[in-house]
Amino acid sequence: MTLTNYEIFELVSMAVLVIMVIADLLLIMARPHVPSNRESTLWVAFYSALATGFGLILWQLFGWQRANEFFAGWLTEYSLSLDNLFVFLILMVRFNVPKRLQQEVLMVGIVMALVLRGIFILVGAALIENFSFIFYIFGAFLLYTAWHQAFRSEDDDEDSESKLIVWLRKRIRVSNEFDGIKLRTKIDGKKVFTPALVVFIAIAATDVMFAFDSIPAIFGITTDAFIVFTANVFALMGLRQLYFLLGSLVDKLHYLKYGIAFILAFIGVKLVLHAMHENELPFVNGGKHIEWAPDISTEASLLVIAGSIAAAAFASYVRLARAKGKE
To answer: Does 9 map to a domain?
Structure first.
């Protein structure tokens, strides 16, 4: 069977991305440290440049449509990954993870996120291919998630995480001290689990929760599984360095959650409209397509997503500037 140019590009791209993830892992193992703001900024800029370059290559080789889908998907996943990142930060503080171990813990969390999102992408692609009505479900789920994103409180998150910690500690014996990132250690000659196990379980639970949000969101932009996966990989790359760069800004990006909520709501509406346009459910419009339901273009989606992130960041900056002016 002869492969198309696009299929060859997919295979080469996947191989390069796997090599990059492995290289990042080896770099952490060889040189564990807390990166400076300058180092973190350079790495974040490097990974952002890579994502931009990848999108431009897609444009040159396969047209602006695929590039548009990638850029819109990457920005959406990046904004959702930022929210994920802030939850990681809260977990690190809550579990008192030593600074010197946070890079390794973060990388494990990011790899788990990649694996989980890969599984969700395969499942999501299969569902979309076989059941067109799944867009209704994805759309409704994203609208619910947008509401929860906008109106949830930190107390809600803390309550859920506290219940998880209590549940785990009742069932397994956990030491009070870390032993590197080892899951088990010896105390008084007996093997016990370390807090690293609880941290990894909490991060995995967080990854699953965010995968449920992010995968339907990006399928609202494109159904190309390759673009979906690469957008996720590029969004997660550099997240480790961004963690250290934005650690002090968690409380300052006050309106970010509203920007993310708007993006999720917009894509939720887009999915429902697409489902109506392609409708095959017998109890909706007699199983016929709803022709008046508009399909929102990828270009419009890209503008809305980029505009939402910019507006949330600008509003947060203005709020911070006003707060400083009152001091």
So the answer is: yes
| Beta bridge pairs of residue 192 | 185
- 153 three-state secondary structure: coil
Q: Is residue 282 assigned to a domain?
A: no
Using alpha carbons, select from 141, 134, 171, 180 the residue that is nearest to residue 32. 180
CA 45 to chain CA centroid, nearest Å: 18
Taking 80 as the threshold, does the pLDDT of residue 241 lie above it?
no
Confidence label for 152 from pLDDT (cuts 50, 70 and 90): low
Q: Which residues constitute the domain of residue 161?
A: 5-247
Tokens of 298: 């990828």
Q: What is the mean pLDDT of residues 189-201?
A: 79
Nearest residue to 264 (alpha-carbon basis) of 216, 314, 211, 205: 216
Two tokens, residue 327: 């001091």
Say if 43 falls within a structural domain: yes
Q: How far is the C-alpha of 24 from the C-alpha of 159, rounded, in Å? A: 34
With tokens 């492969």, the residue in question is 3
Total of domains in the chain: 1
35 contacts: CB under 8 Å, gap ≥ 6: 43, 103, 241, 244
Q: Which tokens go with 324?
A: 């400083």
pTM comes to: 0.73
Whether 165 is covered by a domain: the verdict is: yes
Per-residue model confidence as pLDDT tens digits over 265-283 = 887 888 787 777 666 666 6
In angstroms, how far is CA 101 from the centroid of its own chain? 22
CA distance 153 to 78: 22
The confidence score (pLDDT) of residue 153 equals 59
Question: In this structure, are residues 66 and 224 in contact, taking their beta carbons and an 8 Å threshold?
Answer: yes
In whole angstroms, give the CA distance from residue 301 to residue 37. 32
Per residue in 11-39, is it b (16+ CB within 10 Å) or e — as a string? eebeeebeeebeebeeebeeeeeebeeee
Q: What is the mean pLDDT of residues 174-187?
A: 76
